[in-house]
Amino acid sequence: MSTAPTGNTKTIVLGNRPLREYVLEAIVSLNREADVIEILGRGRHIHRAVTLYNTLASRLGDRVTLKNVEIGSLLIKGRRVSYIKISIAKK
Amino acid sequence: MSTAPTGNTKTIVLGNRPLREYVLEAIVSLNREADVIEILGRGRHIHRAVTLYNTLASRLGDRVTLKNVEIGSLLIKGRRVSYIKISIAKK
Question: For every residue of B1-49, which 3-state class applies, written as one string?
Answer without folding.
Answer: CECCCECCEEEEECCCCCHHHHHHHHHHHHHCCCCEEEEEEEHHHHHHH
